[in-house]
Known about the structure:
The protein is α/β, with parallel strands linked by helices. It folds into 2 domains: 5-116, Rossmann fold (3-Layer(aba) Sandwich); 125-284 and 320-338, Dihydrodipicolinate Reductase, domain 2. It has helices at 15-23, 38-44, 56-61, 77-86, 101-114, 128-139, 171-175, 177-187, 293-306, 314-333; strands spanning 5-10, 28-34, 51-53, 67-70, 90-93, 118-120, 145-153, 191-199, 214-221, 226-232, 240-247, 250-255, 264-269, 273-279, 337-338. Strand 5 (90-93), helix 5 (101-114) and strand 6 (118-120) form a beta-alpha-beta unit. Helix 4 (77-86) runs parallel beside helix 5 and helix 5 packs antiparallel against helix 10 (314-333). The mean pLDDT is 94. Bound molecules: nicotinamide-adenine-dinucleotide.
Amino acid sequence: MNKKLRFAVVGLGHGVEHVEAIMGNPREELVLCCDLNEETFRKANLPPEVQFTTSMQEVAERTDIDAVAIALPTHLHADSAIMMLNAGKHVLCEKPLAPTLEEGLRIKEAVEKSGKVFQLGYEVRYSPFNQKVLQICKSGEIGEVTNVWWNMFCEHTNNGWRSSRKNRGGKIFDCACHYYDILQAWAGAPAKRIFAFGNLLGKIGPTADEIPETAIVIFEYENGVRGVFNLSDKCICRQSSTCGVAATNGKIEADPYYPDQLGSMDVHANGGEFQYHIDIKNVSNKRALHLGAREQHEAFANSVLNGAKVEVNVDTGIQLIKILDALDESLATGKVVEIN
Ligand SMILES: NC(=O)c1ccc[n+]([C@@H]2O[C@H](COP(=O)([O-])OP(=O)(O)OC[C@H]3O[C@@H](n4cnc5c(N)ncnc54)[C@H](O)[C@@H]3O)[C@@H](O)[C@H]2O)c1
């Protein structure tokens, strides 16, 4: 294969983060962009050698494309990913994998049939912030992990495809799935049971079609660790998250986006005493992309060019669909739901 991975990006909403990550990666080359709306391409103001098409079929048929980053609305992931895999492309597909388990399993079948690299865009996993928290948890310096949490308070309106719960729209599904992924990594085991309260402002509980604006989601992991995700998307402030890990010999209290969108944390150990503070630094000195965007492209290039194992693979995506399905069911029924 060509030493550089020749990329197409499909969907130029969040897809522009892939565009930047590819253009900043010496082992990747941006050849083609695809969007139904040409204006999105003009606005991205890309170098003249980057080509544009409105046809996904053309992306699949182009023999000078090795890999495709799919950043289409979630309900379009299955058909587009399967089209690209069947055409022999490696695929980096945005999260969540698909809105339904059935579609997720269709993608899994195509991945296995194609033998191509398929990585999911759970990019926060790859971020230096998450790697640091994981490293501290695994080192044993704060003892045995007992609780994990993430608070997310922001102002957000769901429109377009995101206004549909069936499409897995809304912060509680579309965005928070990153943090459900991270929390179980910190817990050290997959989620086993889930319970969620959610509501719209001024109402007790959403109907099955409504996306909750505030919610508390409670997890129990297979190793007995407990987790909480606490959401308001009606809080008038910049996106503000705090998160952390409690353990038998200390804790980590962290802000994943401050300073500079890179994250920081206070580490308490030795019986709970404050030990040190870490600010994650931008080693490359380039604009910080969305948490982990640059690193997920490095991992992807490593898998395609050097055969490295894909960490966030199609099975990860399927397990996270099961979490979102269980969350959906718990919100609708008010019951604790097992994750199989
Ligand atoms: N990793 C992250 O942190 C992150 C952040 C935001 C969005 N996402 C994910 O990225 C995906 C896209 O989200 P978004 O916010 O960019 O949505 P969006 O609606 O803002 O953008 C989607 C783009 O796809 C284009 N499009 C739609 N149908 C198309 C088709 N058939 N062919 C070509 N182009 C088409 C639209 O014109 C639009 O420009 C979703 O799965 C979302 O969950 C991930």
